[in-house]
Design a protein that fits this description.
CR_Ser/Thr_kinase, ATP-binding, mainly alpha, nucleotide-binding, transferase, 9 helices, protein kinase activity
């Protein structure tokens, strides 16, 4: 079993602030975690990155900086090239930022998140959270997240290839728990290119 400080370090990037700081578990804590994972998926990076001597950068902070500067597309994983729908990616990032609001009551319910991601409901405009970040910190984050892309690509490829066992290629893409089963005959897949 992990000791409490070690567990906190492992989970702090995904825990809702109200739980991590005060031990209050709200019904919106999972929404916060979903937002963090959504940012990781879009960016292809881990939420928490440690650098030399106690420097720690959070992907969420970088996303908020980019949002404030109107450069959210800089968050997108460069390995995707141009093989994505810009409107959908921006919706995903903005939904993730809504989900990671520091105030639990301002996070949307998961049903609204699903509706926004499906395009059935417009994504509300996110107000600035008033986080104070110095220009020096912003520059350090910029260098970190925009740093040596080749090295990051190599590291991510290596990490993604590591598995607990051999991949058999027989796993199903759907399960009884899926929100919607995957249907390869939909217009989405035909019109994707």
């Amino acid at each position: 079993m992990l000791q409490t400080p070690a567990l906190f370090l492992l989970c702090s990037g995904y825990m809702a602030p109200e739980y991590a700081m005060h031990g209050y578990l709200t019904e919106k804590a999972d929404i916060y975690s979903f937002g963090i994972v959504a940012l990781e998926v879009v960016s292809g990076r881990s939420n928490t990155s440690y650098q030399k001597k106690e420097k720690c950068f959070y992907l969420l902070d970088w996303a908020r900086v980019l949002k404030g500067r109107g450069n959210l597309m800089d968050l997108v994983d460069q390995r995707l090239g141009s093989h994505f729908d810009k409107k959908e990616v921006l919706a995903m990032i903005n939904v993730a930022l809504l989900c990671t609001n520091a105030t639990p009551a301002l996070r949307p319910p998961m049903s609204s998140v699903v509706s926004m991601l499906e395009g059935k409901v417009a994504v509300p405009v996110l107000d600035s959270e008033g986080t104070i970040i110095t220009e020096e910190t912003i520059e350090a984050m910029r260098k970190h997240f925009k740093g040596d892309e080749d090295q990051a690509v190599d590291e991510n490829i290596t990490k993604s290839m590591l598995t607990d066992g051999p991949w058999t290629g027989t796993a199903s893409s759907t399960s009884a728990n899926d929100l919607y089963p995957i249907n390869p005959d939909t217009d989405y897949w035909r019109n994707r290119e």
